[in-house]
């Protein structure tokens, strides 16, 4: 096996993963490299063959390949099967093993802050790929009720069916109606990409208070409009970079079977955000 690791996707040049992993390698004096490797949509099979040819040791999978990649694995963990997506692959002597670290990556920052999910009301904005992992995590941790607010009802319905299948108590609310309901929720989670381009928060923040826990999975910019305004209202904040970091640490541990140097990775990331 080579000592090379990668992140694959398209676009990929903005990825912060090489920074995070290479800092960890330097710190642990490991002779490894982590690169960003662009594989356009529709070219995944050829791209993976190329990676296998250089005996890539492991790689992360990002948009648009997280679902498609499942077809090219030799085996996968149960989380991949439940969520229906893969984001971490280990090359075990030519056998590709798939993992999904989205759920652990999402939960880890909540647990680090000792916040209780069990029995709590959760408002989830968005019904895309990340939302499935978040719902899986919240159901596993026995959240009381989850409300999905999304612009397209079709996606929200699909996600609701998925959530019910895995035992979740879920309902759907139109995005424009959630503003009045916000005070009822302990967790308010943004799983959409709204905020990446510095646009205004997807919901009104005036009813967010010190009792709210606001978790925005957007990690660039670090302080989205939703985060800034929620902070002003005294809410507990969980940043997108915390999830990114936990996912990176989780991948690191899958590949190297050793504890990730979390603080070193955090420093590398925050230097780059």
UniProtKB/TrEMBL annotation:
Keyword list, A-Z = Amino-acid biosynthesis, Aromatic amino acid biosynthesis, NADP, Oxidoreductase
Q: Name one GO molecular function term.
A: NADP binding
Q: What is its EC number?
A: 1.1.1.25
Amino-acid biosynthesis among keywords: yes
* Domain SDH C-terminal per the UniProt entry, residue ranges: 240-270
According to UniProt, this protein's pathway is: Metabolic intermediate biosynthesis; chorismate biosynthesis; chorismate from D-erythrose 4-phosphate and phosphoenolpyruvate: step 4/7
Q: Which reaction does it catalyse?
A: shikimate + NADP(+) = 3-dehydroshikimate + NADPH + H(+)
Q: Which residues form the Quinate/shikimate 5-dehydrogenase/glutamyl-tRNA reductase domain?
A: 115-193
Among the Pfam families in the record, one is: Shikimate_dh_N
Q: Which residues form the Shikimate dehydrogenase substrate binding N-terminal domain?
A: 7-89
Domain of life according to the entry:
Archaea
Per UniProt, shikimate binds at 15-17, 62, 87, 102, 219, 247
Residues bound to NADP(+) are 126-130, 217, 240
Alphabetized InterPro entries for the sequence: Aminoacid_DH-like_N_sf, NAD(P)-bd_dom_sf, SDH_C, Shikimate_DH, Shikimate_DH-bd_N, Shikimate_DH_fam, Shikm_DH/Glu-tRNA_Rdtase
Q: Tell me the function of this protein.
A: Involved in the biosynthesis of the chorismate, which leads to the biosynthesis of aromatic amino acids. Catalyzes the reversible NADPH linked reduction of 3-dehydroshikimate (DHSA) to yield shikimate (SA).
Q: Which family does it belong to?
A: Belongs to the shikimate dehydrogenase family.
**HAMAP family membership:** Shikimate_DH_AroE
Q: Provide the assembly information.
A: Homodimer.
Query: Per its record, how is this protein called by name?
Result: Shikimate dehydrogenase (NADP(+))
From which lineage does this chain's organism come?
Archaea, Nitrososphaerota, Marine Group I
């Amino acid at each position: 096996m080579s000592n090379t690791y990668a992140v694959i996707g398209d676009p990929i040049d903005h990825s912060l993963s090489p920074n995070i992993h290479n800092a960890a390698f330097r710190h642990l004096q490991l002779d490894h490299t982590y690169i960003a490797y662009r594989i356009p949509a529709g070219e995944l099979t050829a791209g993976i063959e190329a990676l296998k040819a250089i005996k890539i040791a492991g790689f992360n999978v990002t948009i648009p390949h997280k679902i498609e990649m499942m077809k090219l694995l030799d085996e996968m963990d149960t989380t991949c099967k439940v969520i229906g997506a893969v984001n971490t692959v280990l090359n075990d002597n030519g056998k590709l093993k798939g993992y999904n670290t989205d759920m652990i990556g999402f939960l880890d920052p909540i647990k680090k802050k000792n916040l209780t999910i069990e029995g709590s009301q959760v408002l989830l904005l968005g019904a895309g790929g990340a939302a499935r992992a978040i719902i899986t995590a919240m159901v596993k941790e026995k959240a009381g009720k989850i409300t999905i607010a999304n612009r397209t009802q079709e996606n929200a319905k699909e996600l609701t069916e998925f959530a019910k299948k895995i035992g979740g108590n879920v309902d759907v609310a139109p995005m424009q109606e959630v503003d009045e309901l916000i005070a009822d929720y302990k967790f308010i989670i943004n799983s959409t990409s709204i905020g990446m381009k510095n646009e205004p928060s997807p919901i009104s923040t005036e009813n967010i208070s010190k009792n709210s826990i606001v978790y925005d999975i957007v990690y660039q910019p670090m302080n989205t409009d939703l985060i800034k305004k929620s902070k002003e209202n005294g809410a507990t904040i969980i940043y997108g970079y915390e999830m990114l970091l936990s996912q990176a640490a989780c991948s690191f541990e899958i590949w190297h079977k050793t504890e990730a140097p979390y603080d070193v990775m955090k420093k590398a990331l925050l230097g780059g955000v």
